[in-house]
Please model this.
Amino acid sequence: MQAKNKNIVILISGGGSNMAAIARAAQQQEWESRFSARIAAVISNQPDAKGLPLAQSMGIAAEALSHKSFDSREAFDAALMKVVDRYQPALVVLAGFMRILTPAFVAHYAGRLINIHPSLLPLFPGLHTHQRAIDAGCKEAGATVHQVTAELDHGPALAQAVVPVLPGDTADALAARVLVQEHLLYPRAIESWLQTQP
Ligand code: NHR
Ligand code: GAR
Model:
C-alpha cells in the first residue's frame, strides 16, 4: 500500500542555508521514495529573505507573508496558518524563522512543529546565543533541534551538535562554526523523525 504523502513546510526569515541543506538532503537521500516526503513549500515572514529565491532555484514553491501587514501577532499567525495549511503539512520546520509564534499556532501544529536553535538548550534560549555563550566563558557551544511548544525554546530536544568555543572567538566566528554543524544535524533529525512516522 502506498504510504500517506508527508508534506514538509519550511518557515524562514533570512538566508535559508538550513532550508537548502534540508532540501538537498531530501533529494540526495530520496525522501520521496523512502518516506513519501517532499518539501512542499518555503514561507518567509520577510519578503526580501534571500532564502526565497534560493528555494525557487531548487524547484520549491516559495511565498512571503510579511508580519508587518498585520496589526497583531494573533492576526499574523492566523494568516500564516492559512498559508501553511494549504500544503497540508505532516511537518512544519522552523529554519532561522525569527517570529515568536502564538500558543494558538503552536497548538494547531502540536507534535509536527520543530525548530533549530543555535545553542545547547537548555542554555541560552532566545536571541544572541553565540555572544552569550562566549561571555559566559563556555568551552563548548552548539545547536539543538527541538519540538516547538508555547514556551520559547523549551520544547523537548530531538538532537544536538556540539562545537568548541576557541580562544579569541567572535560571535560571528562561532556562529559560522555552529552553522556548519546545523546543516548536518537538521536533515538528520528530520530523517529520524520521518522514520518514526507510519
Ligand atoms: N515560537 C514558540 N512559541 N516557541 C518556540 O520555541 C519558538 C517560536 C518561534 C520561533 C525560534 C527561536 C530560536 O531558535 C522560534 C522558537 C525568534 C525570537 C524572537 O525574539 C526568539 C527565538 C526564536 C525566534 N523574535 C522577535 C519577536 O518579537 C523578533 C526578532 C527579530 O525579528 O529579529 O518575535 O531562536
Ligand atoms: C541559524 O543559525 C539558526 O539556528 C538561527 O539562525 C540561523 C539561520 O540561518 N536561528 C535563530 O536564531 C532563530 N531565532 P539560515 O537562514 O541560513 O538557515
Observations:
- Residues 171-196 form the longest helix (26 residues).
- The radius of gyration is 17 Å.
